[in-house]
Amino acid sequence: MQEFESYEVIAGDHDKGMVLLADHAMNRLPPRYGSLGLDEAAFRRHIAYDIGIEGLTRQLAARLGVPAVLSCFSRLLIDPNRGEDDPTLIMKISDGAIVPGNYPISETEWDYRLNTFHRPYHKAVDATVASVAAKTEKAPLVLSLHSYTPAWKGVARPWHAAVLWDSDDRAVRPLISLLEAEGDLLVGDNEPYDGALKNDTMYRHCMRRGIPHALLEVRQDLIGDDQGISAWADRLEPIFAKMNAMPELHEYRIFPSRTGPYPDDI
Questions:
Q1: Sorted alphabetically, which Pfam families does this protein's record hold (predicted)?
Q2: Residue 65: how many CA atoms within 13 Å on its side-chain side?
Q3: Which residues, in sequence order, are bridge partners of residue 142?
Q4: N or C: which end of the chain has fewer CB within 10 A?
C-alpha cells in the first residue's frame, strides 16, 4: 500500500456524461514533508487548499451520481492547477507566508513532486474524462470546483460565487444565468481573477480538446461549515443537472485560447 495517495476518484455513472474536479480539495501532506516548516494554522488557510470544496464535491458527486476526481495533497506541496512550466507551481511564498520546505528546492525534488503527485492526479483526470467520453460517445461536461477568500489584501470580494473561463463560453453562460436566476446571488464573470491560464487544468483537459467546461468558485465563508456546504449542494445540484441535459454541452468544439496558440502534442 502506498504511503500517500495523490488523488481520489469517486465512482459514478459514466453514462451521465459529467465529470466533477476538485484540484485543491485537501490540505494534506505526506509524512516525509512534515509541515514544510509552516505552523499548523497555515493548513487551515486558503494557501493550503480550497476551503469547503472537498465536502461540496463529495455531496454533488453523490447527489448527481457522477464521477469526480479530487487531489489529495496540499497546493503548498505542488499546485495541480498549474502547468509544469508555471513559476508558481511550487510556491516559495504564498500570501505572505514563507514556505521553508519549498526553498531551496533541488531539481531532483522538483521532479519527484511532479512524478509522484502532480502527474498522477492529471493522469487520473485524463482517464476519467476519457472513460466518460467513451461510454457516452459524446463530449463530457466537466465542472471544476474551487473557492476563494472573502477579502484580498484588505479589499472585500462582493461576489457570492464566480465563474472563470478562457474563451469557450458554452457552459459558462448557462451556469451564470442559472445562478443569477436564484435572485439572491452576485455572480462574478472572470472575477476575482481571470480564468485564462495556460496549461492549467481546464486548459489541459478541456480547452485543448474542445470539451465543454466551466470553473466555479464559491466564496469560502459561504461553505466554511457543513451547513453551508449542504446549502450550496442544494443550490448547485439542480443547476448542474439542467446544464448536463443541454445537448450543446456534449459536443466537441475547440475554441482558440486567449493565452496563445495550442501546442501540437495533444
A1: FGase (PF05013)
A2: 7
A3: 19, 213
A4: N
Q: Determine, yes or no, domain membership for 92.
A: yes
- Backbone torsion region of residue 37, taken as left when φ is above 0, otherwise alpha when ψ lies between -120 and 50, otherwise beta: left
pLDDT at residue number 96: 83
Total domains present in the chain: 1
Rounded CA gap, 214 and 70, in Å?
A: 16
Residue 43, in any domain of the structure:
yes
143-178: pLDDT as tens digits: 999 999 999 888 899 999 999 999 999 999 999 999
- Whole-angstrom CA distances from 188 to 118, 130, 162, 196, 203 are 29, 30, 4, 15, 20
Given a contact cutoff of 8 angstroms between Cβ atoms, the answer to whether 68 and 9 are in contact is yes
Whole-angstrom Cα distance, residue 48 to residue 77?
Answer: 9
Residue 78, all three cell numbers? 505542488
Tell me the CATH number at 184: 3.40.630.40
Residue 259 cell numbers, joined: 493565452
Q: Is residue 2 part of a domain?
A: no
Q: Are 40 and 12 in contact (CB under 8 A)?
A: no
pTM: 0.97
Residue position matching grid coordinates 493565452? 259
Q: Which residue has the cell 481571470?
A: 194
pLDDT in tens, 240-261: 999 999 999 999 999 999 999 9
Q: Given this model, what pLDDT does residue 1 score?
A: 37
Q: Supply the DSSP symbol for 175.
A: H
Q: Which domain holds residue 230?
A: 7-250
Kindly state whether residue 219 falls inside one of the protein's structural domains. yes
Q: What is the Cα–Cα distance from 38 to 15, expressed in whole angstroms?
A: 44
